[in-house]
Amino acid sequence: MAESSARLAGLRFLRLHEGTKVHSAVGQPIAVRLLEIWDRRDVLRMLTERGLRHKYGSSVLGYGWSLLEPMIYILTYFLLLKIFHRSYPMYPLFIGSAILPWQWFSQTVNSSTSTLRKNSRLITSIALPREIYPLADVAMKSVEFFASLPIIIGVAWVYGAKPSGYLAVWPLAVLLELMIVTGLALLVSSLNTVLRDIEQGIGLVTRMLFYLTPCLYPLLKLTPGARALESYNPMVGIIELNRAVWFPAYWTGWTPLIYSAIGAIVILCLGFSVFARVERAVLKEL
Amino acid sequence: MGDAIVVDNVGIKFAINRKRRIGVKDLLLQGSQVTTGVGEYWPFRHISFTVGQGESVGVVGRNGCGKSTLLRLVAGVMLPDEGTIEVNGGVGAMIELSAGFVGDLTARENVFLISSLHGFTREQTEERFDEIFKWAGVQRFVDTPVMHFSSGMRARLAFSIVTRMEEPILLVDEVLAVGDKAFRKKCAVVIDNMLSEGRTMLLVSHNERDLLRWCKRGIYLRREQPPVEGTIEEILDLYNNDDDAT
Considering only residues 109 to 138 of chain A, which have any Cβ-Cβ distance to chain B shorter than 8 Å? Predict the structure, then answer.
């Protein structure tokens, strides 16, 4: 090895990612893949930054968009439900606290669906852990989620609302949602290249899920039967916890959040293992 | 001294019928298992060869015999259905006249993107930036989206980027075919230099002169038949005779 590196001494730049790579018909264990992703976190970071720059850098409003979009949503639903007299006290805060984490979820799932197809030129030219591309979408949407949080704080300030003690466990809701969106991004991005139907249907599915998640209404107002049924949706507990930060009175207990935790672990594991299994077929389709 | 590329009993299969229905169940349950059935096409199977450090090997074969696929497997951007490929060192791949360009990004953005995927920092790329564009002769089009580039311009820029990524292993697929005479000459000089630096190259080409110039050894890929290895002269003879036979 010493001899060969001496031979290559003519190269001005010592490769960062040198070493033996083995491409085999036998898949690598997930742990090895995770290590490889970690090894190339510089690329993950770069792709995330590029995505954000591309989205905000070329528009006049820039960062304003990530505030404006959820604000328009809040306003629309506020007016809509005002008309039907189905409003709740401090309704903009009520919707906002749920719609921001919901948008994080739906936008990640929607944008990661086509990510491998969109990056196909890079994927078919440079060997990198393929997971990096959907993960960059997750990172981008996560940054956007945190960037949009000032809206909630602003609305709460307008109403003079104070966060409840649930704020202390709120990071758990963020963590679980991150696990869910990561798992789903890996799932839909890889499966979409072999089953193009996903790209067509995913928008509809997330829209339907939106109404099956207590974003516009509290879980508390459902009949016990409906409540129990809806709790199986892992996003329910997460949305409920987000809302409980401002509206502890609507908190229905920890059961939905336990389902969220189980769902998050299952979806995350499923995401990584399905991606690894489908990868070979994916690369042939790109 | 180790080998740069070790290809061991490698095969890859494709579906013949584009409109096949892959069930989700098949995908998930079958996974990496190999099944031989109708509707499958193996461009090559049971291929084994090695490329030593600093060696340059030419790959020849008819259209559709899997030359590009072979390069993709070595580059690690496709995975084999059988066997293993061991690659010692980073790979700079130029397959289908592209170093991985994203069409709607400008040439500048593409250069930064591709270099960072190769592990370069922004500063390191900036150091090489002018050199890359100057060599490719496209300085005027730094901020033009690559999709507006002609195939010749694209090939020049791709070659310029890939050779400046300073990866010890180069995979080159038919670059020289599209260029004009001046470009071919420039490429030849660069390749000469790189080989004298001790870099390893796997070259796919239909051009006998290029193959004879750089490669001592050759591999002849034949559709659904075992490949032949030998000196480049033997391989070219064999390839040309096969050509005449049909």
Answer: 119, 121-128
